User: What shape does this take?
Amino acid sequence: MPYVNVRPPLRRAGLAAGVAVVMMASAGPATAAPAETGNVQKAMEELAGVPGVVGVVGGAYVDGRPVGLGSAGSRLLEGRGGRIPANARFRIWSQTKQMVATVVLQLVEEGRLGVDDKLGDLLPAVVEQDLVTRADEITVRQMLRHTSGIPDWYSGKPNPDGSEGDPSFDVFDFTTHYRPLDLVRWSRGRPRTGEPGEKWSYSNTNHTLLGLIIERSTGHDLATELRTRLFDPLGMTKSYLMVKPPDGVKGPHGHGYHPDAGGGLRDVDRFNASLAGAGAGGVVSTTHDVSAFNRAFTQGKLLPPELQRVLTDRLPNDPQPSSESRGSCGDDFYITGGSAPGSIAMTFYSADGRRQLAMSFTLSVKPSAVELDVSKAVETVFCPSPSAATPHPSARVRG
Assistant: This one.
């Protein structure tokens, strides 16, 4: 799923999809968690007032303990449907990528594959069907780090004004079942973004392929591997992988909307599960569950250090802004997230992995058209003193 850009003062000012953000984050100084936390509900109410936001849920956690849940706006457009339950499930979009990458590297640790194994050897179908050029040169490491040069199946053409256009597919096709290799095939006619290993270029195709590698290496479907390796051990009891229509978000939850060609708004709650690319963005979770994964990953509980560095070491052409400013309460926060038609999901976390603030926004505009002052929410929750109430004016997020 695509990028959402973040500017300072939040450290590592880039909200990207899943592993792309984690890959760019360097270790920051750990500081003690504050003795108090602010009002999550107040932060959510302020965010719900942003034009284009239908509803928002958020949850804050310190050392795994919930310290605040909040929900504002409404489940449906124009105030209908009541408020979204604060513990509701939502699509986490490209935060899925970090989970898939973690499973891949657990398989490396087990000796089932290697980070320098070639795509063509691990997935012979991409060679036999001519789906990926230079598949005999592209490695697992390069796909994990978005340096494979494989073009993105998801991205459409930008608008004439340079803003992000609609995806390459029909956003309102809720029923056609696309196999992961169908999505990979869409990328085949697009130009490569570079030589294998040459430079960073974000592509959903990488993680669609990595999901297939997991399935071929284990003999199990990706949903099973995510459940048995991550969801069950970490107590992520409400998380699951959506794979194909008519899969959707279980239980009461917020609905997102997307403008059609005529400018009318259409409910995209049934966004085609197979168009999330499974390994690229198919996980449904909650603020509790996504924070539990984030905490375990950040604190090194899921991978040995040498394999975790495959994801966390920065690349020479790291596209993140260079600012390393801190929030006004003196701590470093990183951010990971993703977006797609109808919603944005993001998780803020402290450098030591002790604190998380996870949020999901449902929208009535394209993600690229909404502006969210998320740093103020982080400061409201984790820096509740009056002096910390006003964020730096550039601390804005645009979808």
Remarks:
- The chain has one domain: 5-398.
